[in-house]
């Protein structure tokens, strides 16, 4: 029976940060490993700040990445600059590595379109955060098809959660990626929850990676709390795509340690015991223990990192707060390349209304 | 091409696709059966042989996907021209159109854009199976950021399709399937686009403005000819771009004639005619001699082939509405 097909599962570190086997050769690059750790710490601290900003009314609803820092960190590191990211809404870790500024991420969640008008040319072609579930998978295939048409050796990388794998957009995209041999990598952050619906009620497939098989592309699982495992496998998938060998799916098994968003209360549907158990496997603690044991991290480095992270985040928050809201008429500015005559009257009406209120919206 | 050098609308569309692909290497064509088969209406015949599989892409049978990958291609600077086989199958791609194609530019403040064209046969009257005769352009015209264009002749199909492909924003190009092969016209392959966002005045007149688009213009023009014999001088306007509307031309014409009938195949309620009538009362109320009338499809599911012609606006209905409007204001 096809369901008995074994999906590979990769894990290098146990929960205590001990290597389970010989590590890949690239793992001897101590600076790369320290970079993983630094970024995961930054992402978690920034995430806590975002939640605090939401609780104090300074940004809107926010989707926390708590516990899933390893996936984006590894993925951002594995992508090349010329690749294109087509993300979903829990991708702070990877977006920061792509070149999106922290204050731009705050602008986005703070309710400002300019939060997706990134200024760093490194991420100029990346897609904005995608909210309608799984729709971005089609865009990634379109980007990859453009690479194919132009015969460029670039890769489109798209992310989604476990719930997204139930949607037609996701499955149609997998299917196309297989039949067109597209240079696209699907990374599923299986954090076990689609708001309140657990993975067990999402699909009867033994793993989400199995869904790749029907599309004729490789699918595999990694321990998404093990940054080394994620990096190793997504890098292989990206290089495979770049070499013209087609698409693949990497299911990263993680756990959503926070609520779905700040508008959610996971205690309604998730037990404290389950959450407590999940904390035993979270990615940052185990990686810190790993680095300590290898002599590549110590207390002074930790203190310096914490101070640096605090400063970066504080500066980003200040930059964010200093950006005044755009004029209400900006809603018309990028509706079309050139605003058609039909809309001019509405734009002027709105401008007059604002003017009458003394320039305040 | 026919022996007389005249083209049908579907041939004119094919000519425009050849022209656009030859002139711009970024133009690609995709959809179901559009490659070796040349499309079920043959609109893409010859493209596959001439431009190859990298630019002429037969897709799997998945309309959401076709719409969604067009967005990804367009964001990369390609100009995808996607075909949805019939308008009744466009709905699977609606989320991609409404949530992404129409707003990629505004969501990124212009960092990314979506210069794609989605072509699909529009309207009833070709005795096709159910779901093959839809006139639901109002759904699309409601969406900010989209353009909705409907040609009504081979020449306008050629020029407007070239304009749609060149346009930097997403365009839904609705092709009246009833007109695909029913009319022939000499079409110069001059590469000249016609203007979007602009109505075309097909006939000038002083007494009454008839406003329509797509296949319904056939009956509208026939009605205008018949009314002329009775001494009623009709102006006939082809809206051509439904979104955004050329309100200036419509208001100017009705200000001149003082009377108006809007004709469309689409169902009446919340149809495009409602928007046009509202615009006219906002802009030309004091010039109106009589209430504006609508002649439209009925508010029911479009009947199957045996009864579909009874559902479409016919010359009689248009003339009847014209007579009522002509009597209004003179009582």
Automatic annotation (TrEMBL), chain A:
<dbReference type="InterPro" id="IPR017596">
    <property type="entry name" value="PdhA/BkdA"/>
</dbReference>
<dbReference type="GO" id="GO:0009083">
    <property type="term" value="P:branched-chain amino acid catabolic process"/>
</dbReference>
<keyword id="KW-0670">Pyruvate</keyword>
<dbReference type="InterPro" id="IPR001017">
    <property type="entry name" value="DH_E1"/>
</dbReference>
<keyword id="KW-0560">Oxidoreductase</keyword>
<feature type="domain" description="Dehydrogenase E1 component">
    <location>
        <begin position="37"/>
        <end position="326"/>
    </location>
</feature>
<protein>
    <recommendedName>
        <fullName>Pyruvate dehydrogenase E1 component subunit alpha</fullName>
        <ecNumber>1.2.4.1</ecNumber>
    </recommendedName>
</protein>
<keyword id="KW-0786">Thiamine pyrophosphate</keyword>
<dbReference type="InterPro" id="IPR050771">
    <property type="entry name" value="Alpha-ketoacid_DH_E1_comp"/>
</dbReference>
<dbReference type="GO" id="GO:0004739">
    <property type="term" value="F:pyruvate dehydrogenase (acetyl-transferring) activity"/>
</dbReference>
<comment type="subunit">
    <text>Heterodimer of an alpha and a beta chain.</text>
</comment>
<comment type="function">
    <text>The pyruvate dehydrogenase complex catalyzes the overall conversion of pyruvate to acetyl-CoA and CO(2). It contains multiple copies of three enzymatic components: pyruvate dehydrogenase (E1), dihydrolipoamide acetyltransferase (E2) and lipoamide dehydrogenase (E3).</text>
</comment>
<dbReference type="Pfam" id="PF00676">
    <property type="entry name" value="E1_dh"/>
</dbReference>
<dbReference type="InterPro" id="IPR029061">
    <property type="entry name" value="THDP-binding"/>
</dbReference>
UniProtKB/TrEMBL annotation, chain B:
<dbReference type="Pfam" id="PF02780">
    <property type="entry name" value="Transketolase_C"/>
</dbReference>
<dbReference type="GO" id="GO:0016491">
    <property type="term" value="F:oxidoreductase activity"/>
</dbReference>
<dbReference type="InterPro" id="IPR009014">
    <property type="entry name" value="Transketo_C/PFOR_II"/>
</dbReference>
<comment type="function">
    <text>The branched-chain alpha-keto dehydrogenase complex catalyzes the overall conversion of alpha-keto acids to acyl-CoA and CO(2). It contains multiple copies of three enzymatic components: branched-chain alpha-keto acid decarboxylase (E1), lipoamide acyltransferase (E2) and lipoamide dehydrogenase (E3).</text>
</comment>
<dbReference type="InterPro" id="IPR005475">
    <property type="entry name" value="Transketolase-like_Pyr-bd"/>
</dbReference>
<dbReference type="InterPro" id="IPR029061">
    <property type="entry name" value="THDP-binding"/>
</dbReference>
<dbReference type="InterPro" id="IPR033248">
    <property type="entry name" value="Transketolase_C"/>
</dbReference>
<keyword id="KW-0560">Oxidoreductase</keyword>
<feature type="domain" description="Transketolase-like pyrimidine-binding">
    <location>
        <begin position="7"/>
        <end position="182"/>
    </location>
</feature>
<keyword id="KW-0786">Thiamine pyrophosphate</keyword>
<protein>
    <recommendedName>
        <fullName>2-oxoisovalerate dehydrogenase subunit beta</fullName>
    </recommendedName>
</protein>
<dbReference type="Pfam" id="PF02779">
    <property type="entry name" value="Transket_pyr"/>
</dbReference>
């Amino acid at each position: 029976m096809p369901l008995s097909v074994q999906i590979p599962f990769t894990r290098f570190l146990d929960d205590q940060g001990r290597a389970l086997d010989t590590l890949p050769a690239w793992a001897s690059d101590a600076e790369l490993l320290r970079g993983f750790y630094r970024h995961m710490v930054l992402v978690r601290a920034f995430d806590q700040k975002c939640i605090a900003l939401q609780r104090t009314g300074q940004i809107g609803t926010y989707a926390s990445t708590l516990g899933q820092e390893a996936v984006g960190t590894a993925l951002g590191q594995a992508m090349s600059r010329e690749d294109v990211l087509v993300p979903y809404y829990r991708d702070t870790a990877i977006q920061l590595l792509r070149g999106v500024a922290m204050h731009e991420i705050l602008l986005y969640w703070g309710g400002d379109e300019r939060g997706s008008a990134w200024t760093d040319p490194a991420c100029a072609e990346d897609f904005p955060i995608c909210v309608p579930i799984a729709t971005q998978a089609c865009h990634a295939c379109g980007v990859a098809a453009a690479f194919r048409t132009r015969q460029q050796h670039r890769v489109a990388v798209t992310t989604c959660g476990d719930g997204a794998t139930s949607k037609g957009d996701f499955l149609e995209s997998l299917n196309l990626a297989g039949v067109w041999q597209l240079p696209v990598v699907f990374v599923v952050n299986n954090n076990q929850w689609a708001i309140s619906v657990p993975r067990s009620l999402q699909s009867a497939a033994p793993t989400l990676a199995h869904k790749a098989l029907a599309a004729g592309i490789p699918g595999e699982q990694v321990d998404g709390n093990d940054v080394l495992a994620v990096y190793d496998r997504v890098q292989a998938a990206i290089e495979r795509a770049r070499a013209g060998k087609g698409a693949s799916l990497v299911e990263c098994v993680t756990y959503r340690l926070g609520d779905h968003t700040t508008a959610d209360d996971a205690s309604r549907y998730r037990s404290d015991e389950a959450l407590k158990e999940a904390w035993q496997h979270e990615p940052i603690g185990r990686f810190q223990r790993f680095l300590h044991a290898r002599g590549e991290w110590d207390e002074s480095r930790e203190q310096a990192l914490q101070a640096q992270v605090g400063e970066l985040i504080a500066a980003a928050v200040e930059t964010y707060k200093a950006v005044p809201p755009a004029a209400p008429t900006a809603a018309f500015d990028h509706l079309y390349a050139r605003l058609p005559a039909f809309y001019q009257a509405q734009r002027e009406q709105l401008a007059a209304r604002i003017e009458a209120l003394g320039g305040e919206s | 091409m026919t022996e007389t050098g005249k083209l049908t609308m579907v041939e004119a569309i094919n000519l425009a696709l050849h022209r656009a692909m030859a002139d711009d290497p970024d133009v690609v064509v995709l959809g179901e059966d559009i490659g070796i088969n040349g499309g079920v209406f043959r609109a893409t015949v010859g493209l596959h042989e001439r431009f190859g599989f990298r630019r002429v892409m037969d897709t799997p049978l998945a309309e959401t996907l076709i719409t969604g990958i067009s967005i990804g291609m367009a964001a990369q600077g390609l100009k995808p021209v996607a075909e949805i086989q019939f308008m009744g199958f466009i709905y699977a791609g609606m989320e991609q159109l409404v949530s992404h194609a129409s707003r990629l530019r505004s969501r990124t403040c212009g960092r990314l854009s979506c210069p794609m064209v989605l072509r699909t046969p529009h309207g009833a009257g070709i005795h096709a199976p159910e779901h093959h005769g839809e006139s639901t352009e109002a759904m699309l015209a409601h969406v900010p950021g989209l353009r909705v264009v409907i040609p009504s002749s081979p020449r306008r199909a050629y020029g407007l399709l070239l304009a749609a492909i060149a346009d930097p924003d997403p365009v839904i190009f609705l092709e009246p399937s009833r007109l695909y092969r029913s009319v022939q016209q000499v079409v110069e392959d001059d590469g000249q686009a016609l203007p979007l966002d602009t109505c075309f005045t097909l006939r000038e007149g002083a007494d009454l403005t008839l406003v329509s688009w797509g296949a319904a213009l056939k009956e509208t023009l026939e009605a205008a000819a018949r009314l002329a014999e009775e001494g009623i001088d009709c102006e006939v306007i082809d809206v051509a771009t439904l979104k955004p509307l050329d309100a200036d031309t419509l208001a100017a014409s009705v200000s001149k004639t003082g009377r108006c009938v809007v004709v469309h195949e689409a169902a009446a309620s919340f149809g495009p005619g409602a928007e046009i009538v509202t615009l006219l009362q906002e802009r030309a109320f004091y010039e109106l001699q009589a209430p504006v009338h609508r002649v439209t499809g009925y508010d029911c599911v479009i009947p199957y082939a045996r009864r579909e012609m009874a559902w479409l606006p016919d010359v009689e209905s248009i003339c009847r509405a014209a007579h009522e409007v002509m009597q209004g204001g003179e009582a």
